[in-house]
Amino acid sequence: MKFCIDAGHNYSGFDTGASGYGLKEQDITFYVAQKLKALLESPSMEVIMTRNALTENVGKGLKTSLRGRYELANSNNCDYFISLHCDAATSSDAKGSHVCIFANDSEAERLAVKVQDQLLTLGLYGRSEQISVRNDLAVLKETKMTSILIEMGFISNKDNANIMKYNQEGLAKAIYKGICEYLGITSDNLKNEEQDKAMEEKVTIKINGNDSGIEGVLIEGVTYSPLRKLCDALGLTLNWDGESYTADIITQGEIPECAPNSKLKSKYSIVGATHVVELAPCNIKNVEVQCLTTEVKYDNFVNSVYFMKLSSGAILPLGMAVENGKVLSNYATHDKPVSTIIIYNDNSVEMKRISNISEEKNVRFAVSGYGVYPTITASLEGFTGIYSDVIKQANRPIIGYRKNDNKIVIAVRADTTAERANVTAKNLGLDFAISLDGGGSTTLKVNGDYKFRGDGRKIYGGITWDL
C-alpha cells in the first residue's frame, strides 16, 4: 500500500500559504506531514512526500506546483493521496477543521469522515460543513487514487493556531488514526507507544518519609511527577500560564487551604432532599471519562458537561472544561456564550458567560453548564426549542460557589426543575451556580458509594475530589 503525503504550499516565492499568529501554513503542513509519514511507514505501507525538506518548493509557479504534486502521486501509482492545509479567514472567529473531497458517496468520503472525526477530538470543531465537495481543486480532480485534502483548522483563529503550534504530533496522530480506522487496521505505531509507556517504571513519592499519594514515573533515568500535585502537597502555589507554557512556583505567602495539615478538604451531607458536597476550590478536579454511569471508577465523582453525537456516531463533550490549565473542551454550546465556573491559579472563583475559555488568563479549573443562580439563563445560552427540556423536572446536579466560607458546593437533587435548583442554590447560600448535565446522566459517588447511579448511559466528563 502506497501513500503520497502532500505538505501543502511552498516555502517561499510562489504558492506560499496563509499565515496567522506568527505561523506560516507551509511550515505547519510540512511538520505535520513529517510526523504523519513516521507513523504510516511500515513494511506494508510505503510513503512518498511532495516536499522532503522544509525549504523545498514544488514547481516554478502555481500551476506547476499543483501539477508536480498530483503527477508525483500518479506516476508512483499511489493508493492514497493526503494533502495537508490550514484554512484562513478575515474573521478570527472562524474555526474548525474540515476535509475536502472530489465527490460524495466515494471511498474518499468514507476516508474523510474517519479523519474528520479524529480531528474533532482535538477540539477542532466549529465548521457547520464537516466534509466539503470541491471538484475544482486540482489535487483532487487530477489524482487517480483515493484523495482527500485536509484543512487542519483556521490559522487565523487563536485556538486553532495554538493547536497547530503546540500539538502537531496530535494532528498527525488524529489523521493517522482516521486512516487506520478507514482501512480497518490496528494503529500499530500508537500501540507501540502505549506499550512503551506501560514499560516505564513507576515511582512512589514520599514527603518527610510519608507517602504523598503522588505517583511519578522514571524515564531514562529521570523522574517525572505531576507538578501541581507536588506543589499542593508541599504547600506551594503554582501559577500556570497556558499561553506561554510557563509554570511559576510561589514559595512565600500563606499556605494554600489544601496543603497538608490544613483544615478539612471537603464535607458531605444531606440537606432535606438534597445531597451536598462542600469543598475547597483547590480540591476540585476535572476528569475525562468515557464510561457508563454505573461503572465510574472514582470514589468521589459527579458527572459534568453535556455531550453531542455526530452523524458518524462519534461523540464529543460540549461546553468548557479545563483541568490544571489544560483545555479539555472549548465548545460554546449552541454557539452562544455559556455560564462557566472558573477557578484561577490563585484559587479565586468566578462565574462568567464565555464563548472561548482559551481567552481567559491563569485558569486552573473550569466547567460550564447553564446558569441557575442568581438567574436562570438557559434560554440565553441556546437551550430553546427541542433543547428547552433541560430546565424540566429531572435528577439534577448543580455546582456553585459560596464566598463567605470560600467553598465550592455540589448539590444533587432528584426530580428537580431549573426553578427548584434556583431555590436550592439560594437556600445553600451560594453566590452563583450552574446546572450540569442532568436526567439519565446524573451520577454522584461519595466515598465509593453511589448516591445517584444514572440510567446506565455513557458519560463523557466528570468532576472528582478528595474527601
Offer a concise description of the structure.
This protein has 467 residues and is of the alpha+beta class. Helices cover 22% and strands 36% of the residues.
What labels describe this entry?
467 residues; alpha+beta; 6-stranded mixed beta sheet; 6-stranded antiparallel beta sheet; 9 helices
Q: Quote the beta fraction.
A: 35-45%
User: How would you write the strand order of the largest sheet?
Assistant: 4-1-5-8-6-7
Helix/strand/pairing class, anyone?
alpha+beta
Number of helices: 9
- N-to-C span: 54 Å
Find the count of extended strands (DSSP E, 2+ residues). 33
Largest sheet: 6 strands, mixed
- What is the CA-based Rg, rounded? 25 Å
Structure description:
- This protein has 9 helices and 33 strands.
- About 2% of the residues have low confidence.
- The strands form 9 sheets. It has a 6-stranded mixed β-sheet with strand order 4-1-5-8-6-7, with helices on both faces. Strands 14-15-28-27-29-26 form a 6-stranded antiparallel β-sheet.
- With 467 residues, the chain is of the alpha+beta class.
